[in-house]
């Protein structure tokens, strides 16, 4: 007679087995060194500039994390895949860093109490190198700053007018005149708009990368019209090639009868980079294309005329950095039958 299966006992056994596995995993703590973590100074009291020696962030050579083997394995995988980048935000007021001058920071204590470590649930920070860092706190004062315009790459932009030409902003008291500059950064679309009409922007002073103080006033900016980046240049010692189909070249060879005229200096409108690329390319500066239809008996006995093709570098053509600044040269040529073709 079959015994009655007691499912409750089976469930208890399974539950206990799983519990033992989980406990065993938790009991097997591992440590793992993580290099290259970053501490970033977050927004603080606008009247204070808090930095690591003038920088908004600093790197930690090594942090040793400890936790369950499964969690450590997960962290290792995320780091190798680039999906995890340890960055710790430091809020000076929360750390009690408000006194002007150098302020020591216990790095291990800071990391242990950070929100970023709490997000790595189950992990603790055991050691780190360095264990102590120094934060510099500078009290800022309001000073008048000259306004200048730059693009997103930091290049200065010529302007027709800025109103007002100077604004007040918070800066270190020991900054010299060369640093008392308030910047207005314009996007490409803003540059195009500002060339047509004045636009409103808020100037700012850059204390360090990613650490700025904005002015309390806006300015109106009108940029100067865009200067033509192209200028007329002469290409000396030009070269020319002749392109014919294999069939045609087997029957004829071509002679350009006005070659000195064709090889006169070429006038182009180009940037300096485009000019250099055109002059230095392996491809001839010009090509005379001769087609099979040009070998008709009537045509082949006379001097023919064709405009040459200019082999400008495609990259600079796409960018609009080179174009012909003259009428295309006209090559006069004759097709001379090859002896082997005449005997056929």
Task: Describe what you observe in this structure.
The protein has helices at residues 7-27, 69-81, 107-112, 115-119, 188-196, 246-251, 259-262, 272-280, 297-300, 314-318, 339-342; strands spanning 29-41, 48-51, 57-68, 87-90, 101-106, 124-129, 132-151, 159-163, 166-172, 181-186, 199-201, 204-208, 211-214, 219-223, 231-235, 240-243, 252-256, 266-270, 286-289, 304-307, 309-310, 322-324, 330-337. The chain has 344 residues and is an alpha+beta fold. Strands 2, 5, 7, 9 and 10 form a five-stranded mixed sheet that branches. A four-stranded mixed sheet has the order 4-1-3-6. The longest helix has 21 residues, at 7-27. The mean pLDDT is 89.
List keywords for this structure.
344 residues, 23 strands, five-stranded mixed beta sheet, elongated, alpha+beta, four-stranded mixed beta sheet, RNA Polymerase Alpha Subunit, Chain A, domain 2
Describe how the helices and strands are arranged.
Blueprint: H1 7-27, E1 29-41, E2 48-51, E3 57-68, H2 69-81, E4 87-90, E5 101-106, H3 107-112, H4 115-119, E6 124-129, E7 132-151, E8 159-163, E9 166-172, E10 181-186, H5 188-196, E11 199-201, E12 204-208, E13 211-214, E14 219-223, E15 231-235, E16 240-243, H6 246-251, E17 252-256, H7 259-262, E18 266-270, H8 272-280, E19 286-289, H9 297-300, E20 304-307, E21 309-310, H10 314-318, E22 322-324, E23 330-337, H11 339-342
Parallel strand pairs: 1-4, 7-10, 16-19
Antiparallel strand pairs: 1-3, 2-7, 3-6, 5-7, 7-9, 8-14, 11-14, 12-13, 15-18, 17-23, 18-22, 19-21, 20-23
